[in-house]
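note to self: dont lose this again. the chain is below, predicted strucutre after it. 405 aa total, dont forget to put it in the shared folder this time
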Amino acid sequence: MSLVVQKYGGTSLATVERIINVAERIVKKYNEGNQLIIVASAMGDTTNQLVKKMNMVSDNPTPREADMLLTTGEQISIALLTMAIQNYGCPAISLTGSQACIKTDDKHNRAVIKDIDNKRIKKELKKGKIAVIAGFQGINSKEDFTTLGRGGSDTTTIALMVSLKADRCEIYSDVDGIYTTDPRILPNAKKLNFISYDEMLELSSLGAEVLHPHAVELAKLYNLKLYIASSFNNNIGTIVRGVKKMEKKRNVTGVACDSDVIKITIKKVPDKPGIAGNIFTRLAEHRINIDMIIQNLQYNNLNDISFTIHNSDFKKVKETIYNIAKNVDSRGVEIDQDVAKVSIVGAGMISTPGIAAEMFQAMGKVDVNIQMITKSEIKISCLIKEDGAKKAVESIHNQFNLGEL
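---
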C-alpha cells in the first residue's frame, strides 16, 4: 500500500461542482489501494475576498487577526471536500493546520514550518481514513493560527510528505504540467515531460505560479519527485526531479514573465559605505524579498539605488521606504508600477556562451528596451515596460526554438 500526498489548488476547488469532481478523483485513487493525505487550498478567490473585506474594516489590521481571518478559507474547503468524499462512501476526516499539529515560528502572515507532530494524522490513516488537511496554515508557540504566505499550500504539501515519508506527491491545479512559457500568453508553448529542481526553483521565483519556490527547495533538499498535473483532465503531467548523471542539460528550458513587480528608486543617495546595507537591512526586517538591484553612480558623490519587490509587499512597506529615503538623506523616491520582469532559465546556460546576447537580440527585434538586468548560473532576468512583456516573451520563445523542445 502506497502513501500518496495530493494537493489541490484553489481553482480546482473554486465551485461545488469542482469540489465534487476532485472528490471523485480522490475516491478513485483510494479505491486503488492507496493511503491518502489531501492538502486543500481555499476555494477560488476566497482568500482575495477575505483580504478585500479585511481592508474595508481596517487600514492597518494586526498580523494576528489577519491570520485568524485568512485561515477560515481553507477550513471551508476541507470541510466541503471531506463531505463530498464521504458522500461517495469513503471514510475521510478534515483537519485544520492546528489539528494536524503543523507547528510554525511565531511570525504571522509569512510563518515558517518548524515541525509537524504527525501522530494525529497517522492515527486517522491507520483507521483507513483519507486525511484532508488545510494548506497554507499552522499554529505557533502561543497557540495562535499562522499563515505561510503566498503559495503556502505547496509548502504544507512537501512538509507533510517529508514528515510522513510518503511514497508519492501529486500537485493538481488548472494547468496540466510545466510549460516552456505560460500557454495563456503563447499558445504554442510546449509542455515539458520533466524539469530539474534548479530550473523549477528559478521559474517559480520568476513568476511561474505552478509551484511555490520554498516547496521546490524542500523537494530538492529531500530529493523528492513531484508530479504536476491538472485536476480537470487525465493528461500526463510534468515530473520535477534531480538531473540524472550524463543527462544532457537544455541551454534554455523556459521563459517566465512576472507583472506583479514594482520598481523602486531611492534617488541621489550619498555615496558612503554602509548606506546600501542600511537600506536593505531595514527592508529585511519586514521580511521583504528584494529581487533586482542596481546602483548607478551619478554626480557629486550621489547614487540612484533601484530595486524591485513584489506588488503585494509594497503597501506594507511603502511608509518604511519613504522613511528610509529620508534617513539616508536621499532626494526622494520614485515608484514605477508599469514594469514586468522577463526571464529565461536553463541548466545548460552556464556552459553555453552567447545565451544573454541571443536574449537581448530577441527583445531588440521587437523594440523592447531593457531597464535592469540580473544573471545567475542558470537564469537571466530583464526588467522592461509592462506593455512590451507579451511580445518580448514571444520573441524570446521563438529565438530559442522552445516550441520544438
